[in-house]
Design goal:
The complex is a heterodimer. In chain A, about 75% of the residues lie in helices and about 0% in strands. By secondary structure, chain A is mainly α. In chain A, helix 7 runs antiparallel to helix 10, helix 10 crosses helix 14 and helix 13 packs across helix 14. In chain B, about 40% of the residues are buried. Chain B folds into 2 domains: about 55 residues, no CATH class; about 200 residues, MetI-like (MetI-like fold, Orthogonal Bundle), CATH 1.10.3720. In chain B, helix 8 crosses helix 10 and helix 8 packs antiparallel against helix 11. The chains are: A mainly alpha, B mainly alpha. At the A-B interface, helix 1, helix 4, helix 5, helix 6 and helix 7 of A face helix 1, helix 3, helix 4, helix 5 and helix 6 of B. Chain B: Keywords: Cell membrane, Membrane, Transmembrane, Transmembrane helix, Transport. Chain B: It is found in: Cell membrane. Chain B: InterPro entries: MetI-like, MetI-like_sf. Chain B: Belongs to the binding-protein-dependent transport system permease family.
């Protein structure tokens, strides 16, 4: 049977759609499995063969609060992510403004140099930073994490805000300038409203990067300031006796990202691709 | 910079441009611009410069964690040292070279796989199909969640007795007996690669998708009118056009993969079979408290990455100048 041109195209669309959904399901499966495990009892989690249908329970969620004090870790994560994002934006926006609108010969090399610090292996500065925190009494404090996350994410933030500012026609700023606006007014009255979407993506990226960071939180915090990533890492029994509880903590650690991602898909995609996807 | 539009604005407001000499005004503005840039530059110098120099200094001393203040300068002994017929130092440490091998293998294999799969994902996600937004978001999730979570979840799924993966593979008839993915020395590095590919392919796919979206559609119209096979169109039109974006994405990933830490640390801890250079250096520094020795390893890793970055900056400067 010969297919018409239109039918071939329809078939191709159908097959591509099928492939896309298959890819999506495979990628999502581990997350699905984690969420599923978090509603099992520890016993059911170890059932062999693994069960797809079971009586769901909330006992893991209750127990992670009672036994490991989930909320204090979550609160540390929230404070540290928001703190570093806000401070980062306060530094990144002016820096990107001067790079984007007062470009000099050195601007591009400054940008590249700045981005290259992002490539530093963190272990290369681990000991000095650890000692610095120890000597200043910042070890195991949220302040230390806020400072370090701000520093780590700054290059990416400046770069992203810079690329969003670059898209704004200079005429608009000229016009504001002729109306007598100071640089600060230019930023707050003209640039920020125009690049709202881009700035939101940048903040989202910074929030996610800080939320997910594990190297420094593992090495610089003990109990007081430890965020969720440190709590999850501490579930390290190789025999894996607490998989259901670990799944519950992990699900809660992913939940904000999943929810925010759902609410702001466009900003999330833009942020996570470092502004590449418009 | 003066465009026709701004010139028009200037003539529309002659009073402003006449009463303020342009030179002085723009000079104060340039000064303000530098002032805005200053906090960032200071901050970056502090974060990138000082601690790094300190690490390099430690690497030339015999410092250990408890004797930091009595550390002595010992030259290159931490790197390489010949004493009573034997070589010592990081460069003579078989475990370090194992870590170098693991890191290079991990980088090469995972970045290649991510590139190929990312390309496939991007092409698929670029097509029109029902539920595209949802699928795009679902594919993105592995990249958005904490690495520590994905590594933990995978070590659960890869569990030799209770893991879902062994169960699936056995019931599909692919495996006869369960495999100890993270404990078996010939498999564990592949398990690490698999988890990294799962996590990072979305990032690759996103960057490639961005490049695909910017392609001019008239090339494709022309190719379709001429009846050229889609596979040929891909290799002759699409691939050359997105190569610059691919290079940027691959560079990002390579530099990131070379300092891999958390996937490996969570999945296999300090096992020598999968230990990366970062894991090696951290173990020396934190667990063995050999500050001098660990700093030497850190410095070597830093030098390696820095040289690669410099080479890339040198080669890619021309290409990047258009993009940034």
């Amino acid at each position: 049977m010969m297919l018409t041109l239109k039918q071939t195209r329809q078939l191709r669309t159908f097959l591509l759609g099928l492939l896309a959904w298959a890819v999506g399901l495979v990628m999502f499966f581990p997350i699905f499995w984690m969420i599923l495990t978090s509603f099992k009892t520890e016993l059911a989690a170890f059932a062999s063969p693994p069960e797809l249908f079971f009586t769901p329970t909330l006992e893991n969620y209750v127990e992670i609060q009672q036994r490991s004090g989930y909320f204090s870790f979550a609160w540390n994560s929230v404070v540290v992510s928001f703190g570093s994002t806000i401070i980062g934006m306060l530094i990144a926006v002016p820096a990107a403004y001067s790079m984007a609108f007062y470009e000099s010969k050195r601007t591009k090399s400054t940008l590249l140099w700045m981005l290259s610090t992002k490539m530093l292996p963190p272990v290369g500065v681990l000991m000095p930073i650890y000692l610095l925190c120890k000597n200043t009494g910042l070890l195991d404090t949220r302040t230390a994490l806020v400072i370090i996350y701000t520093l780590i994410n700054l290059p990416i933030m400046v770069w992203m805000v810079y690329s969003f500012f670059k898209e704004i026609p200079k005429d608009i700023l000229e016009a504001a300038r002729l109306d007598g606006a100071t640089p600060l007014q230019e930023i707050s009255r003209v640039l920020l409203p125009i690049s709202k979407g881009g700035l939101a993506s940048t903040m989202l990226l910074s929030l996610i990067l800080s939320w997910n960071e594990a190297f420094w939180s593992l090495n610089l915090t003990a109990s007081k300031a430890a965020p969720l990533t440190a709590l999850i890492a501490s579930y390290s029994s190789p025999e894996g006796l607490f998989w259901a509880k670990l799944s519950a903590v992990s699900t809660l650690a992913c939940a904000p990202i999943l929810i925010i991602g759902w609410l702001s898909q466009k900003q999330l995609v833009r942020g996570l691709s470092f502004g590449a996807v418009k | 910079m003066s465009t026709p539009a701004t010139d028009k604005l200037r003539t529309a407001a002659p009073a402003a441009s006449a009463s303020h000499p342009k030179g002085r005004l723009s000079r104060t503005r340039v000064r303000a611009a530098w002032l805005f840039l200053l906090p960032m530059l200071v901050v970056l110098l502090l974060v990138a410069g000082w601690p790094l120099l300190r690490t390099i200094w430690f690497s030339f001393t015999d410092a250990s964690f408890s004797t930091l203040h009595e550390a002595h300068f010992i030259g290159l002994e931490n790197y390489l040292n010949y004493d009573e017929g034997e070589w010592y130092g990081v460069l003579a440490d078989p475990q370090w070279w194992g870590a170098v091998r693991n890191t290079l293998f991990f980088t090469l294999v995972s970045v290649s796989l991510e590139l190929v799969l990312g390309m496939v994902f991007a092409l698929v996600l670029n097509a029109q199909f029902p539920g595209r937004a949802l699928v795009r978001a679902a594919v993105l999730i592995p990249w958005a969640i904490p690495t520590i979570v994905s590594a933990k979840m995978w070590s659960w799924m890869l569990h030799d007795q209770f893991g879902i993966l062994n169960h699936l593979l056995i019931s599909l008839g692919i495996l006869d007996t369960p495999l100890a993915w993270t404990a078996n020395s010939s498999l564990s590095l592949w398990a690490v690669v698999m988890v990294d590919v799962w996590k990072t392919t979305p990032f690759m796919a996103l960057l490639i998708l961005a490049a695909l979206q910017m392609l001019p559609s008239d090339c494709y119209e022309a190719a379709r009118v001429d009846g050229i096979h889609p596979v040929r169109v891909f290799f002759r039109v699409t691939l050359p056009l997105i190569t610059p974006a691919l290079l940027v994405a691959v560079t990002f990933r390579v530099l990131d993969a070379l300092r891999v830490f958390d996937v490996i640390y969570v999945l296999t801890s300090n096992s020598a079979d999968t230990m990366s250079m970062s894991v090696f250096a951290r173990q020396q520094l934190v667990e063995f408290q050999e500050v001098g020795y660990g700093s030497a390893a850190s410095t070597l890793l830093f030098l390696f990455i820095a040289l690669l970055t410099l080479a890339w900056l040198y080669l890619g400067r021309k290409r990047l100048q258009g993009d940034l």
